[in-house]
Amino acid sequence: MIMSTAAALFAFQASPLSLLKQGGISTAAVLFTFGLVIFLHEFGHFLVCKLSKIKVEAFSFGFGPELIGRTRGGTRYSLRAVPLGGYVKPAGENLDDLTGAPDEYFSKPWYIRLGVVFAGPFMNYLLAFILFTGVILVVGEPAPSPEPVIGETVQGYPAQSAGLKTGDRILSVDGTAVNNWQQMADLIHKKINAPVALEYQRAAEKFKLTLTTKKGPQGKGMIGVSPGIVYKYIGAVKAVKMGAEQCYYWTAYTITTLVSNIKRREKPDIAGPIGIVNIVSKAAHTGLADLVFLIALISVAVGFFNLLPIPLLDGGHAVLYIFEGLSSRKLTPNVMKWVNSTGIALLVSILLFATYSDIMRMIATKAAPADARPLEVNEVAKEFGIAAPAASTAPAAGVKGK
Question: Which of 81, 169, 226, 337 lies deepest, with the highest CB count within 10 Å?
């Protein structure tokens, strides 16, 4: 069905095999995440259909056998057994079934149908904007902590090799006591490819070690640490602005990454069924803010993915309707059948590739370190294999790789 394509694809990604591997909280989080994101996507289609006086034969929350249902105003509203999204079935969505009634989908002008297909992704972006804004308003704006406490060690640098960990407080550098992060960084910067003696505190114990700095990109001595993140309260107006910036950033980043991969002929690093379930599971166990932020990211991803000009997706339908409007040529059943067949083949290929990528990623990271840290709000995005935006991380200058 035209309006349920995205829902079917992303519902299939949360397969029963994957869900069986998760605990109760994880499963509930996965169901809630996919249910909310995809249901609102379909609700967008439903709402514009109603506003455009298109008859909707069915509007369902979930898939599978119907648990509860009610017919009202010619529409069958139902709650189904698998709460992983939903679907909308407008009358006359198949050209072969047209009767010529004015309330059928393909009886409406191309620009009305264009509004219907765009409504789904719009709802995804609206949800993401609300969630991003809410998290920023409640949690606050991230900023680097001024305390000389390690927030993260960088792979390939001396600090990680020497055993320094998140939470370690640096007490002195070469015998000079340090009271803040900048003071510590200034002392280390002066030592380029040279030994530096550190005294640090972990829990209630104090330790000493000597390591050799590494020359950084800016020609300064570095040991490869970054400060922790603190969150400062901000007003509603700024939170709204930052929420919009998050939506823009993730969309722009996705586009530039895809273009870069195509130009370099590189394999895109995408999360598929297993990967998404694992990410949601991890976020669910580390806090509500993490889960909400992740739901917003997934909502942006679903909205953007559906805007791609791939047959069967909203973007693919949009291209057809725009062509119809510009050329004044009506779409034919044969054209739609060819488009749908091509779309199914492409979507199945994408799903298989994403699943393969998940399996390869799991094999590559099977031996995880025993002291791995919990996920943080500014790190959720990294689980997708991409860096977080400036609004969610500490500034790079004077922070990382000290």
Answer: 226
Residue 197: count of CB within 10 angstroms of its CB: 14
CB 294 within 8 A of CB 279: yes
Domain locations along the chain: 2-142+233-392, 146-227
CATH 2.30.42.10 corresponds to the domain 146-227:
yes
Centroid of chain to Cα 59: 26
User: How far apart are alpha carbons 321 and 306 in whole angstroms?
Assistant: 15
Under a CB-based contact definition with an 8 Å cutoff, are residues 318 and 118 in contact?
yes
Residue 11 structure tokens: 């519902």
90 forms bridges with which residues in the sheet?
56
Give the whole-angstrom CA distance, residue 270 versus residue 104: 38
How far is the C-alpha of 100 from the C-alpha of 92, rounded, in Å?
Answer: 9
Looking at residue 375, what DSSP letter applies? P
pLDDT digits (tens, 9 = 90+) for 23-79: 445 667 777 888 888 889 999 999 999 999 999 999 998 888 999 999 998 999 999
Q: Can you read off the two tokens belonging to residue 170?
A: 């640096």
